Fold:
Amino acid sequence: MTKDINQSDIFKFVSLRPPVSADKKKQEINFITDKRKPEETPVGKLTKKFDPKNGTKIPTQIKEFIQMKEFDLNYLQEDSNLKKIYEFITNIDKNDISNDVLLKGIEKILDEKLVVLYKSEEFQEQLHEIWDRYYAFYMLGRTESINLDNLTGILRIYHLIHLLSQEIIISDEQTLKSIFFAIPLIPKLFTDLPKLKVTIEESKKPEKLDEFKVKEYKNLWSDLVDTNRAIEELKNIRFDTKITTQTKNVVIPNKETGIEEKIKLSFFKNELIVNKKSFETLNKNTKTLLNNINISENNLQISDAFTKLQRKLETTNLAVSGLSDVRFMSYMPEEAKLIPAISSIVSKFGIADSIKFPIIIHPPTNVRSSIKPLGIGDLKVVKQTLKKYVAGEVAHIENVLRGEYKERKHRVLDRIEDIFTISNETSEETTKDLQTTDRFELKKESDETIEEQMSLQAGITVSGSYGMVNITAHGEFAYSKAEKESNKSSSNFAKEVIDKSVSKIQKRTKEERTTKKLHEVEEINTHGIDNKGKPDHVTGIYRWVDKHYEAQVYNYGVRMMFEFIIPEPAAFYEYSLKKARNNKIDPPPKLTIKTPREITRQNYWDLIATYNVQGVSPPPLPWKTISTSIAKDKMPLDGNGQTANSKELIVPAGYISKLGVWFDCSAYFSNYPRLEVTIGNKIFRLLDNNGAVGAVDNNYRSSEPYHWFWEGNPIQISVNSYDVISYTVNAYVAVELTNEAFEQWQIQTFEKILTAYKVLQTEYEQKIAAQEFQGGVTIPGQNPLINREIEKTELKKHCTKMLMDTYLFGNFDAMKDTIGTPPTPIPPDFDIFDALNEGKIIQFFEQAFEWENMTYLFFPYFWGRNSEWINKINTHDADPLFTKFRQAGSSRVVLPVRPAYNDAVMYFLENNGAIWKGGETPRLKDDMFISIAEELRNQTDDLAGAKPDGEPWEVIIPTTLVWLQPDDKLPSFE
Structure:
């Protein structure tokens, strides 16, 4: 037998360990280093000009540098001396390898002592030239296919010259081979470069907005912010009092005598004008906005200004609601966080409520710099080799006496008779009732009764209504008002479920089957021992046969291993289950408001339409103007000319008067008149003696603010006159809606929206329940092999995401959706250039790692989000391992690299995700990478040339074989 037939594998395993630190002597031989400081080299100085935040221009800068320096990859390729040295080294006999032989051979070619040559300025400059080219083309290799084999070969020859000049012992073929396969080490300065923008990233960026769209979005945000700010600032603006007068002489006939008399007529106009200092404190954008709607410091009327601003705000919100471009949010200014109900705009564009504005787009983060190989995995195989068969213990002893004949017959009869009868009768009857009735009743009852009675007990009778003023003169004054408002809003939701459907199924099945099977086998063996005529007894000793194996562990090489800690590995899988479960039934729109305060005048229309809300009242007006009038005529001019009159301005429910009262007055008078109008805490002296005064009483400053009047606090207006024939006073007041009244409207509206939302949610849940009921009996879980594939696929996805840039992962779209018009739609097709670019990345990730040999471990649920603990701990599956996957709060994944891709993966990590496009890959000048590279050098992926690991041991395996020994002596095991 050959050894190959006798040898077989028992099992394989990977022994994970940290890389062994490279021996300094071996490191000096196996790696090539530049003795200069990286930052002092010409290429190092070039890197200082790179933009640290954007590496897009780096390839162009490197190309310009290469062109300026006239660098090329074929540098010194035609140098005859270098060729001769290479031929000398490759043809040297392995028995002649020594420092002396190498020195003499190279010095003969160069015609110069190596020690002198190495120290010469010309040699060092040429070495520096090689390194500068190597660095420049190395960095260019991130974006273009660069083959550094020529420069690497030249560096290795110079490396050999360096070692010989330093008297490093080179005495065997392996050492010389290591020198000729030495790897150039690259400083981190040339690997830690700003991130390049990959083509796929560019293709996945949203289409760049044109300048007109950008301007439109910025203007909308500016209008939203400025208009909201203006409305808030106008609520706090202050007003002063200003009175203008005009007096003229008039002639009117005396009604009693008919004689014309000369009297005077004065007009008084009391206005509220904006306090200059208060107006100056307004934001400049507020002033600009007011100016655009033709409102200035001189003509600002608060109710008119508010009305125009509210209209502008409604127009702006309408324009925003018509947008669907999420890029609109990227232009949101910081001040927009103060806009009331900003959450409505946020939810419209599908941005999570948890995001704090303004939106900050973080630059792509390179996590690869944090990913290091976990260690080295030795692939080991236990092999067994069959050495021999050895007789073991006694199995049986057969004795035959002298002259005896012994015969044994062995009869085996195997008879099988099956009679199989089936009788199956089934009767089934099912009765089921299902009837569903939904009744939703939203009932609103609103009764409003206003009773107003007036009686005057002091000379005239007045009946008035807010707005226009109707006056009927009568006499005596007394005023009483009874207002009763009843607003009842009730929402009743009743659901009745009566299950009534009669389904009667009667099934009767009867099956009879008889099978008869007879199988008979008879075997007769005759065994005889004939000892007739023999002088001695016969004894036969049968012994068991044992196999003897030699077991040995063989090391077939190493694998570079990476470790990843993945948070909540089943998160996407659980999400997909929920989406798939309810994909046919649309859930109600998410409730975008959480408190009544988020309801505004601008968004309540959208909320009503979204949730189908009924019975919502419009918001109360923010400002109202109420007025009243006092008039008196035919007053005598004799000594009894003293008269007084008064009236009240009633502040409506839910409003407050802050700004004060303005009025218009006209009066006919003669002689020495006196006319005063008292409003609230202000006294206005209009006539005094022989003319118009038109000023506030000296005891009151014109800038003194009016007292505030709330609901139920009437504003008293009084008129005192003397020697005044007649007068009229028209008074006006602007009242502002109170915060409490507006909040009451918000609460009522919120309750109705919430009720409507609950109705939609209930209907949705009922549809889901009905769908699940119709689904019938479901079998929990699925094939465990399918579960293993799901686990591996999800973990593979997460590991790939950590190795790949986040902005790039998940953005592969070589296949394009095309637009066609029925009846001949165009099927999807892929873009050739995108497919080529994406294919290189896919090929690298799929081939560089041994995904099939990935190992993983799931950690408990409490390593995940606290909000998901309850869901995870109550998640179960028929497959116990799959239960661990779904409950896992985190997981540990150990991933091996294919030996053929060791250098490519290390280059990928060293160079910020760049994939090496050709030639032998250089190495990063880092202790860990050097140790790993040292262990991985010369390793292959085949299983040939395995090295024994440890001492072999013997394994004895009993068999069922029996051996008859040639004699009758019993074995001794002493």
